[in-house]
Amino acid sequence: MSEEKQIVLECRDVSVRYGDVVALSGVSISFARGRIHAVVGQNGAGKTTFARAISGLVSPDTGEIRIDGRALPSGNVNQARQAGVELVHQSFALPPSFTVAEAMQFGAADGRIYSRRGLEKRWQTYLDSLNVNVKAGQRIRDLPVETLQSVEIARALVSDARLLILDEPTAVLSPEGAQKLFERIRHLKDVGVTVIVILHKIREVLAIADTVAVLRGGMLVEGPVECSGINAEKLAELIIGPAARPLEEDQKAALTGSLDTAHAHLAQSVDQAAVEPVLKLTAVSTRPDSDGPPLEDIDLVIRPGEILGLAGVEGNGQRTLVRAISALAETSEGKITIEGLDVTRASLQTRRAAGLRVIPFERNVEGLSLTSALWENWSARELLKRPLLSMVRPSELRQRCGTALDAWEVHYSNVTQHAGSLSGGNAQKVILSREMDEQARLIIAAQPTRGLDIGATAFVWDSLNRARARGCAILLISSDLDEIMDICDRVVVMLSGRVVGTFTPPYDLADIGAAMTGVSK
Amino acid sequence: MTESIVSVFRALIFIVIALALCGLIFSVAGYSAPDMFRAIIDGAFLRTGALQQALRWGLPLFITAAGVVISFRAGYFNIGAQGQFYIGAICAAFAADWLNGLPAFIVIPACFLAGMTGGALWAMWPGILRLRSGADEVITTLMGNFLAVIVLIYVTSGPLKDPSGSGQQASSRPLDAAYRISTSYGVSPTIIAIAVLVGIFMWLLVNRTAFGVLSGLAGRNATMVTWQGARLWNIGLASFIISGALAGLAGTVELMGPNGRLASGFLPAHGFTAILIALVANLSIVGTAIVALFFGGLASAALYLPVIAGLPSSAIDIINAAIALFITAKSNIVDRFLRNWRKRVWTT
Questions:
Q1: How many CA atoms lie within 13 A of B138 on its CB side?
Q2: Is the Cβ pair B220, A369 closer than 8 Å?
Q3: To the nearest 10°, the Cα dihedral for A478, A480, A481, A484?
Q4: Tally of structural domains, chain B
Q5: Residues of A with CB below 8 A from B221's CB?
Q6: I want to staple A419 with a disulfide (CB 3.0 to 4.6 A). Which of A368, A407, A516, B220 is the partner?
Q7: What DSSP string describes B294-315?
């Protein structure tokens, strides 16, 4: 193949370390021009570091990066940009108060002075030429996330990028949004741009990429290999590695994206109606507040040993429901009981004492204090059970935290390190180790696998299944229907603060989808 | 542990830079920089009595600064230490006035109780406003400072006015000598004991209680502790009250110790220096003790600046401000230097 000779980017023995942590070690890889390359790996495998290294954002400690055969001076973003390399970040970096035109101009200024209208005209033409469907006068903060990403990509292409690096672009997108993004990427390939896209869903890799390279523990374990020559199972094994716990068949199937999983484990469903429910919501409504739509007349029952899935388009009251159960939203009518105890007016502390545990939506804000030590994060729940002025022994807490984190297979170097220094999957495991203790009776898991890689996702599911086997009641809120249909014993769908449908296996994707969008009945 | 050593080094480097800059400015202005440094080092630590003077200024500063640490750690920027300090002193002065004639073992504890209560109440109303309705405590505590200054003027020229005063500066009737806990010289075993007790209790509170850990978490991420079931109301209000009570305690110490009377506008920078100390010490209690003594030394050196270097004693305020500026500015250069240096030291 002639493309093989056309190497656009080459890494030779690149290593990056952050303090004591080796993020990349000895990566040697080269990418051919004009194709779509995927780089996959678990959280913490070094994907983002890799993206940053090849775009000049971080300088490698050893090794060199060559673009078009010329060595890139280490850690020089401008040089990399001049060589035609552009990085689109995982989290967007556009100023929210800017208009689209201003954001485009920012970083691509040509030294001329424009009127507002002139500026908008200049960029409208450009955006239209890229098929980005947006008005140049709109504010960044008003844009939906898909459009925002298109604008980011358009902005990266201003400077005539020949190598575009996308860092987990699908993490923020809906399935349809991802499809649109893929079309856009293919279009870029057609006009001769080389694309390196960092992903962690195998299904997406196989859908978009020409070649795939796998990172694990900061090392290149495979690739780049042609996607046509590899299947999902093989790729999953490469990503997780030999040390991974064996996955159950249905989990593996779900992770690799084949939809038709058998609900084998659901056959065991005993006559559940007779069992006293752990959580019971009777006609619960909440007062409207600034944080999402209020609940209207919600009836919900979760019994021991049951995982109830809560599906719905995001922003239809799922968050309010979790907050109402956690005493963080005010219940105006109705009754909430946990283990038969009326907690409608009780504080979260009382509810937690009754066995409630919450894995919140926002891992890094509601779940953990990123700038606090791991042991502080871990012991918060327990310390709150004691009087404020009770004496504690930090050394003892640190030791117990270490034991717990080890048991949950968290990769960390020291319990005094900041929670923010952990990768997403490890951070989630810290929350799991805190929230899924032996006394837990009711576990609210809100988007527990969002942004996690395949290994960590499997770990979370496994933990939920084990908690269910112990007799916990679990409420799983997820926007990933595959996930919901896979591990839930029952599914309810929320729309505008109401429960609009209850489903039992075997699930019909079309029915659930119709309920989510309000088409049915 | 290494982390805190590095942060102390970091602070020291900034202080040296700040002093060097001040030396440069003063020498451009026609003063002698070497004389200035000599005055500071002599006046702070070397001269006979300099150390006592450093303690005289440093101990009350430490007490107030320890309180600032408590509220800052919990994430509340109570910058009203100055006002709480004044109100504490005023309440103690009223208590001493009303109980005048009773034996000292009743009056002195009563004054301390009054002073701490006064300071606590003066911190409590901004706390309640913040926790109930989200009113920014930076604004309310700052306003509290101005109000306290006005109250002090009123008290010293009204209810507690000293009729025999010179009229140059309004002040209250001097305390009966039996009720003083130190001479005008300013250091006594009582004051040292109070400061040590404050240090021990605050250290325990921060490092060995559930409150300490939880308030530290709440200060960094209040949302997270709310999801854990914490009531920010308890942690927050307690932080305000403790920090106010300690500022009030320092006010009482100043009144019943070195000052012996209320004077309108006395020690106008006390609370702000205490905030500076807490920040320089990176909100650690041990660090606060060390840094407070250092700033106590600077305050004591202020007396020598006019004598040795011919500088106005207010030059020390310029030096304080320069240090504050350098400490609060985040300097990547120094941090990078420290990181490399530490890597080299710790790996070899």
A1: 4
A2: yes
A3: -50
A4: 1
A5: 365, 368-372
A6: A368
A7: HHHHHHHHTTHIIIII---TTH
Closest partner residue to B223 among A326, A347, A366, by Cβ? A366
Regarding pTM above 0.90, the answer is no
Chain-chain contact of B230 with A384 (C-beta, under 8 angstroms): yes
Asked whether the beta carbons of residue B224 and residue A381 sit closer than 8 angstroms, the reply is: no
Of B225, B227, B234, nearest to A388 by CB-CB distance is B234
Is A388's CB within 8 Å of B238's CB? yes
d(CA A449, CA A461): 8
Residue B340 belongs to domain with CATH number: 1.10.3470
CB contact under 8 A, B214 and A383: yes
pLDDT tens, residue order, chain A (521 aa): 444 458 888 888 888 877 666 788 888 888 888 889 999 887 667 888 888 888 888 888 888 888 888 887 766 777 777 788 888 876 667 777 888 888 888 766 677 788 888 888 888 888 887 777 888 888 887 777 777 878 888 887 777 778 889 888 876 666 667 777 888 888 888 888 899 998 877 778 888 889 999 888 788 887 788 888 887 777 777 776 664 445 555 555 555 544 344 444 444 444 555 678 899 999 999 988 777 788 989 999 999 999 999 988 777 888 899 999 999 998 999 999 999 899 999 999 999 999 999 999 888 889 999 989 999 999 999 899 888 888 999 999 999 999 999 988 888 888 999 998 888 788 989 999 999 988 899 999 998 987 777 778 888 898 999 999 999 999 999 877 778 888 899 999 988 888 988 998 888 777 887 787 766 44
Residue A321 near residue A494, CB atoms below 8 Å: yes
**What is the Cα–Cα distance from B276 to B292, expressed in whole angstroms?**
9
Residues within 8 A of B (CB atoms), A 287-346 only: 326, 328
User: How far apart are alpha carbons A26 and A13 in whole angstroms?
Assistant: 4
Domain ranges of chain A: 3-247, 264-355+439-517
Fold of A3-247: Rossmann fold (3.40.50)
Residue B204 with chain A: CB contacts under 8 Å? 391
| Nearest CA-CA distance, residue B155 and chain A, Å | 37
H-helix segments, A83-201: 100-105, 116-129, 145-158, 175-190
Class of domain A264-355+439-517: alpha beta
- Among the partner-chain residues A370, A384, A397, the one whose CB lies closest to the CB of B229 is A384
B225–A377 C-beta distance less than 8 A: no
Pairing of strands A279-286, A298-302: antiparallel
Interface predicted TM-score of the whole assembly (ipTM), two decimals: 0.82
Establish if A410 touches chain B: CB-CB under 8 angstroms. no
Chain A closest-CA separation from residue B283 CA (Å): 14
Angle in degrees, 0-180, between the axes of helices B81-98 and B50-73, rounded to the nearest 10: 110
Six-digit token pair at A267?
A: 């056959």
Q: How far is A349 from chain B (nearest CA, A)?
A: 5
User: In this structure, what is the dihedral angle of CA atoms A85, A18, B325, B80, given to the nearest 10 degrees?
Assistant: 110
Range of the domain at B165: 2-347
Whether B229 sits inside 8 A of A348 (CB atoms) is yes
Under a CB-based contact definition with an 8 Å cutoff, are residues A504 and A490 in contact?
A: yes
